[in-house]
Amino acid sequence: MSLPPALRASVTPPELELIACQELVEIIPLIAMEKTAFISGAYGPLRPPHRAQIPIWMAVNLKQKKKCHILAPAWLTVDYLQEKLVHETTQAEFTKLPFRFAEISRVLLDVASDDLQSPDKLRTLLKDLREARQAKARAGLESLEHSTLGLSNLSAMEINEIRPFFIKAMSVLGQLRPGE
């Protein structure tokens, strides 16, 4: 059930996942299919064993019907995420990650974990990365000033999480400093 806009603090995580499912992912089709037109565009043709790029929503549908294998994006590997975790825990700034990495990784791990290398290790690394980034965001919000907030390289999910707090904090700061 959808809440009226006045009662919603922000976009829900499932809504963010739905938006992220418009991103393209590479698959190896197990069936042949002609080019198919959708509202969002035309995809295909699919010819096994040739790779194809299609939206995640379509890949998920085909995967659930056992008609394709989904290939992990370049950033959804143990080596890449370990490197980003080291950077995240040793550097002051946020490491650059795909804008919708949290949503895409969740969908792919839920639906196609059998197509990914070391899915349990990926889940652990993503959880550790998320916790490190949340700690940085909290530290950044503690030093919040009315004029600026420098939190670059945040993902869509992270922005969505801090938005309600940030809006309230900026409103209170605005009331405390009416002349600025």
Q: Would you write up a description of this structure?
A:
One of its GO terms (biological process) is DNA replication. Pfam families: PSF2_N, Sld5. This is DNA replication complex GINS protein PSF2. By secondary structure, the protein is mainly alpha-helical. It has 2 domains: 22-71, Ribosomal Protein L9, domain 1 (3-Layer(aba) Sandwich); 73-180, Methane Monooxygenase Hydroxylase, Chain G, domain 1. The protein is 48% helix and 11% strand. The chain has 6 helices and 5 strands. The strands form 2 sheets. It has a 3-stranded antiparallel sheet with strand order 4-1-5. A two-stranded antiparallel sheet has the order 2-3. Helix 1 crosses helix 4, helix 2 runs parallel beside helix 4 and helix 3 packs parallel to helix 5 (119-142). The mean pLDDT is 87.
Short description:
The chain has 180 residues and is mainly alpha-helical. 48% of the residues lie in helices and 11% in strands. Strand 2 and strand 3 (41-43) form a beta hairpin.
Q: Low-confidence stretches at least 5 residues in length (pLDDT < 50)? A: none
**Gap between N and C termini, in Å?**
41 Å
Highest CATH level, the class of the largest domain: Mainly Alpha
Rg over CA atoms: 20 Å
Query: What is the helix tally?
Result: 6
What's the mean pLDDT score? 87
